[in-house]
């Protein structure tokens, strides 16, 4: 929309502004800088009031006879109309904004003279123009004009009141729609978060755009929400700036919603009651009576402090009648509203001596916080707020149509075993409360939820396909590929000359030099050294009476995929494939094998530490807060441990990060910019209280790299499991006292952590720090990394930070989810997360109880994550490998939906003996569980999880060089495969989610060719459970 200044409105408002100038403030200036994210209410409000919209990089200065503009050419052209309108009444001066505006400032000062200049001094502007203004020293004195500006903006003319009325109509419409959404959610038992409710009502404004504009008479682009709607329930009623992700609770629900039309704001607050108590009913009606009293007292000529005192007396009287004592009384009962959501000079409190005037607009807000609920041992809040306009008579309530009477905002839920009540007297729709359906209709509710979830998943599938097409155009499928530096064998020397060989060498015997990491073998009458990095694997061969042999297999050019550079002679690559030595002592080869493996493990550890140190980039330096507030938290331990182990220390908050100081003065610094997720583990939920930081870039603690750092403290002794509490003697006073003492300790610890977290969020506001708290009611158990974990969602993650190694899954990095082993009669299932970075191995959570299936699906759906179901475990390494071979074909054929969606003819094809076997069958390459280990975070104790694997498998030692992609099978090893091993590969089931049409473009099993027949992978169909 083209912006245009309305000259008549500008002149009228300008005359009102200069009429308030006096000897204390003979000139007023508005300076607007560049956008920097901070709020400057008075500057914005005055620009909108004068010109119709906010301006940037502009100076406007006015006296009783002179007007000065300093702005860009485009803005000056827009102001030309005002120049003609003001000719004869004001001297209008235009100055073009340039790189150096000091000359323009001098000219303005010379014309206005040596006078005081009024500005909203508390609002600091940003940008080059503002910097020049603050550096200019030519003004006699700059005084604060905030009160003057507030008084000018307080009285609204007829046009402004019209905008208030339109905004109130929009607020009323959206508020009723939000209440209806809440009623429907409670009515059918749908679990929905406060944030999702807010999003729904925001979307409804876009969906009903044309209808809203027509009914209310709005112009496109000139109306919006004043802030994101706020819904609170479940005991959490703290003052916030937006909705949280807590689930809607059936108790006391507070709703806050406001809109703006042409930048003029209105607001409304209501409290809903589900199964209210009698005291809640009486207290709510008392609060309504107090609000009505305030509105009655708000008449022309009344001071705001007198209104506050009289209303507060009435509130105290009502609380005494209800026998409610020790409640915190409100400090204010409302404030002015208009171009600012809260006009600070019009606050209804005991200090305000402002006299109410005609045309002023107020938001009358009565709130009682932290009211105890004796039944549940928690507190709740009741709040009611409306917008009023001061007129010659009684004040007009512009949000009167939003339900407020107790009968309209209270609801009773009917329990399953509760008998049907007699029909209530006939009520109008206006006064009729909504009752939730009986809970014996849960089956119908679940079916409806499943239907809605399916519709949403279909939409997510379309959105995902669009996203894949966009990523294909932008070439964003391959990410974070790390080039592995090839090992150059001709530069790998253990010794510079034979004189450096160990003196313990014996002719004809193999020797292991642990210091040089070398294996010296007898060859051609001398000893030849080989670095252990060249050895692929070693094995022992029994030869009966002749003794036993040791077979040493080396990496070759055919098996290393270019990760080792072999020397060349005359253009030909030279290498040794294997060596074999016989010993009459059968135990000698076995001892050598153990020594070689131990040496390889040592080399592997050293190389891993070196790689981790190289991958850790340079971090921003911590800026120490030497003065001012420096919050600290004492007696916190750290995981992973470093330095002095598990000794407690102090966590300090500085300008741009944290510093942890051990009791022995060892330090650990973490900057805010490197923290990806801030997670708070409450002591009320688990055996520890913890602040957990998941990092963007890893740091090195001790000798290990880690993406996770946790500061924690234990909250008491052993805690019984929440689901299975052992039997105890309820009459044991000592035990009851101990349990109560533990509960009090947890509450105290939780309060300390919450205060500390709030301080961190306030100090780190520029970094948008917001701690995530796990939703325990959405948690589920599953196996990961050979451990049984209780996984809990947070706002942006799925995590477990109680046990080590930690589990942190960032949800916005997930491409799709896949439920595996979803077949009738199964007691558990697996859940696989596929990442947007296809080079990253998938993450599989195994053996999740089937009772958690619906809950996990609902959670994924609410997080807008697309998921699929298959009947078997897929070999995801093969799936992703085949996709990456032909990404354009993968996208053009329908992407993930085409690969994983279930086919209606699946059952028939499984019965077809000639149906091709899927290349994704687990029988082809074994389980891909090893790939999941790449996601494992660092173990606090530094244990190597691979010890048992090394003892059981003497063949595969390729991980010494991190050669995970090198095949560990050569021709000789294939000959050693036994018939029993081959038979084990038979009978593996393929996934039920088979590829749909156009199979030629998707990964498929290779067709049979002449030669030896391929190994059979014919699936065995599982019998359905017997009913």
Automatic annotation (TrEMBL):
Complexes and interactors: Component of the FACT complex.
Bias kind Acidic residues: ranges: 903-917, 925-959, 968-979
Domain Histone chaperone RTT106/FACT complex subunit SPT16-like middle: 782-870
Family: Belongs to the peptidase M24 family. SPT16 subfamily.
Gene Ontology CC terms: FACT complex
Name of protein: FACT complex subunit
Subcellular location: Nucleus; Chromosome
Domain FACT complex subunit SPT16 N-terminal lobe: 5-149
InterPro entries per UniProt: FACT-SPT16_Nlobe, Fact-SPT16_PH, FACT_SPT16_M, Pept_M24, RTT106/SPT16-like_middle_dom, Spt16
UniProt-listed Pfam families: FACT-Spt16_Nlob, Peptidase_M24, PH_SPT16, Rttp106-like_middle, SPT16
Record region (Disordered): 414-439, 903-1027
Record's function text: Component of the FACT complex, a general chromatin factor that acts to reorganize nucleosomes. The FACT complex is involved in multiple processes that require DNA as a template such as mRNA elongation, DNA replication and DNA repair. During transcription elongation the FACT complex acts as a histone chaperone that both destabilizes and restores nucleosomal structure.
Swiss-Prot/TrEMBL GO biological process terms: DNA repair; DNA replication; transcription elongation by RNA polymerase II
Composition-biased stretches (Basic and acidic residues): 419-434
Assigned keywords, A-Z: Chromosome, Coiled coil, DNA damage, DNA repair, DNA replication, Nucleus, Transcription, Transcription regulation
Domain FACT complex subunit SPT16 middle: from-to ranges: 510-660
Lineage of producing organism: Eukaryota, Sar, Alveolata, Ciliophora, Intramacronucleata
UniProt GO MF annotations: nucleosome binding
């Amino acid at each position: 929309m083209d912006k245009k200044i309305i000259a008549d409105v500008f002149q009228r408002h300008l005359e009102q502004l200069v009429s308030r100038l006096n000897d204390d403030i003979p000139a007023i200036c508005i300076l607007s800088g560049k956008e920097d994210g901070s709020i400057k209410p008075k500057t914005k409000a005055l620009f909108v009031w004068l010109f119709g919209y906010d301006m940037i990089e502009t100076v406007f200065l006015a006296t009783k006879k002179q007007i000065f503009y300093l702005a860009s050419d485009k803005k000056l052209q827009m102001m030309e109309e005002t120049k003609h309108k003001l000719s004869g009444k004001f001297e209008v001066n235009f100055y073009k904004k340039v790189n150096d505006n000091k000359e323009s400032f001098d000219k303005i000062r010379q014309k206005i003279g040596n006078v005081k200049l009024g500005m909203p001094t508390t609002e600091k502007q940003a940008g080059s123009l503002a910097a020049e203004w603050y550096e200019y020293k030519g003004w006699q004195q700059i005084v604060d004009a905030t009160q003057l500006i507030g008084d000018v903006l307080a009285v609204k003319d007829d046009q402004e009141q019209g905008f208030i009325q339109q905004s109130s109509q929009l607020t009323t419409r959206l508020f009723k729609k939000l209440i209806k959404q809440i009623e429907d959610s409670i009515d059918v038992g749908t679990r929905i978060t406060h944030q999702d409710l807010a999003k729904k009502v925001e979307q409804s404004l876009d969906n009903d755009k044309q209808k809203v504009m027509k009914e209310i008479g709005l112009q496109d682009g000139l109306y919006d929400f004043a802030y994101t709607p706020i819904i609170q329930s479940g005991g959490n009623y703290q003052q916030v700036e937006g909705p949280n992700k807590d689930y809607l609770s059936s108790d006391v629900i507070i709703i806050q919603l406001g809109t703006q039309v042409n930048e003029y704001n209105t607001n409304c607050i209501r409290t809903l009651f589900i199964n209210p108590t009698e005291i809640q009913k009486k207290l709510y009606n008392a609060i309504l009576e107090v609000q009505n009293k305030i509105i009655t007292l708000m008449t022309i000529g009344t001071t705001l402090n007198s209104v506050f005192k009289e209303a507060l007396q009435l509130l105290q009287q009502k609380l005494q009648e209800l026998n409610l004592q020790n409640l915190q009384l409100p400090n204010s009962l409302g404030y002015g509203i208009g171009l600012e959501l809260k006009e600070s000079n019009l606050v209804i409190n005991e200090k305000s001596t402002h006299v109410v005037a005609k045309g002023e607009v107020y938001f009358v807000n009565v709130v009682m916080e932290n009211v105890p609920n004796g039944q549940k041992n928690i507190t709740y809040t009741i709040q009611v707020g409306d917008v009023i306009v001061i007129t010659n008579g009684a004040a007009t309530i512009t949000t009167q149509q939003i339900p407020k009477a107790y009968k309209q905002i209270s609801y009773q839920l009917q329990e399953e075993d509760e008998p049907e009540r007699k029909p209530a007297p006939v009520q109008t729709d206006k006064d009729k409360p909504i009752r939730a359906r009986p809970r014996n209709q849960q089956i119908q509710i679940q079916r409806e939820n499943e239907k809605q979830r399916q519709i949403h998943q279909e939409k997510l599938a379309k959105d995902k396909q669009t996203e894949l097409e966009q990523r294909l155009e932008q070439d964003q499928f391959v990410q974070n590929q790390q080039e592995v530096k090839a090992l150059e064998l001709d530069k790998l020397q253990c010794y510079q000359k034979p004189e450096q060989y160990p003196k313990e060498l014996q002719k004809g015997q193999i020797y292991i030099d642990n210091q040089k990491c070398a294996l010296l073998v007898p060859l051609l009458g001398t000893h030849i050294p080989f670095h252990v990095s060249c050895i692929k694997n070693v094995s022992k061969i029994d030869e009966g009476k002749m003794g036993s042999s040791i077979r040493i297999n080396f990496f070759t050019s055919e098996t290393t995929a270019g990760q080792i550079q072999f020397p060349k002679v005359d253009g030909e690559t030279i290498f040794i494939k294997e060596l074999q030595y016989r010993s009459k002592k059968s135990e000698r080869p076995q001892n050598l094998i153990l020594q070689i493996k131990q040496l390889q493990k040592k080399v592997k550890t050293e190389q891993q530490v070196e790689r981790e140190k190289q991958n850790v980039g340079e971090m921003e330096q911590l800026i120490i807060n030497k003065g001012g507030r420096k919050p600290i938290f004492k007696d916190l331990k750290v995981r992973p441990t470093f330095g002095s182990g598990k000794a407690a220390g102090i966590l300090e908050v500085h300008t741009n990060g944290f510093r942890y100081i051990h009791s022995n003065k060892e330090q650990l610094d973490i900057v805010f910019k490197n923290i990806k997720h801030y997670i708070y583990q409450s002591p009320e939920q688990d055996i520890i209280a913890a602040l957990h930081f998941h990092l963007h870039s890893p740091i090195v603690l001790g000798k290990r790299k880690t993406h996770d750092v946790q500061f924690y403290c234990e909250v008491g002794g052993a805690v019984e499991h929440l689901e299975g509490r052992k039997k105890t003697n309820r009459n044991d006073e000592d035990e009851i006292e101990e349990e109560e003492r533990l509960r009090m300790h947890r509450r105290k610890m939780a309060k300390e952590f919450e205060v500390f977290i709030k301080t961190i969020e306030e100090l780190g506001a520029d970094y948008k720090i917001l701690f995530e708290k796990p939703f325990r009611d959405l948690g589920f158990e599953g196996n990961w990394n050979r451990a049984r974990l209780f996984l809990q969602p947070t706002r942006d993650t799925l995590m477990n930070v109680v046990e080590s190694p930690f589990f942190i899954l960032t949800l916005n990095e997930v491409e799709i989810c896949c439920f595996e082993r979803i077949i009738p009669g199964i007691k558990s299932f697996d859940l696989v997360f596929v990442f947007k970075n296809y080079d990253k191995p998938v993450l599989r959570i195994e053996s999740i109880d089937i009772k958690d299936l619906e809950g996990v699906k609902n959670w994924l759906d609410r997080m807008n994550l697309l998921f699929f179901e298959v009947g078997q475990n897929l070999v995801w390494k093969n799936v992703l490998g085949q996709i990456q071979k032909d990404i354009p074909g993968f996208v053009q054929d329908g992407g993930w939906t085409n690969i994983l969606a279930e086919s209606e003819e699946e059952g028939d094809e499984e019965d077809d003996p000639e149906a091709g076997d899927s290349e994704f069958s687990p029988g082809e390459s074994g389980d891909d569980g090893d790939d999941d280990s790449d996601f494992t975070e660092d173990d606090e104790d530094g244990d190597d999880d691979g010890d048992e694997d090394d003892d059981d498998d003497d063949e595969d030692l390729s991980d010494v060089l991190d050669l995970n992609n090198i095949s560990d099978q050569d021709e000789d090893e294939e000959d050693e495969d036994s018939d029993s091993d081959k038979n084990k590969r038979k009978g593996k089931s393929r996934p039920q989610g088979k590829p749909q049409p156009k199979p030629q473009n998707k990964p498929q099993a290779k067709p049979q060719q002449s030669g030896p027949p391929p190994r059979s992978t014919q699936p065995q169909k599982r019998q359905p459970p017997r009913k």
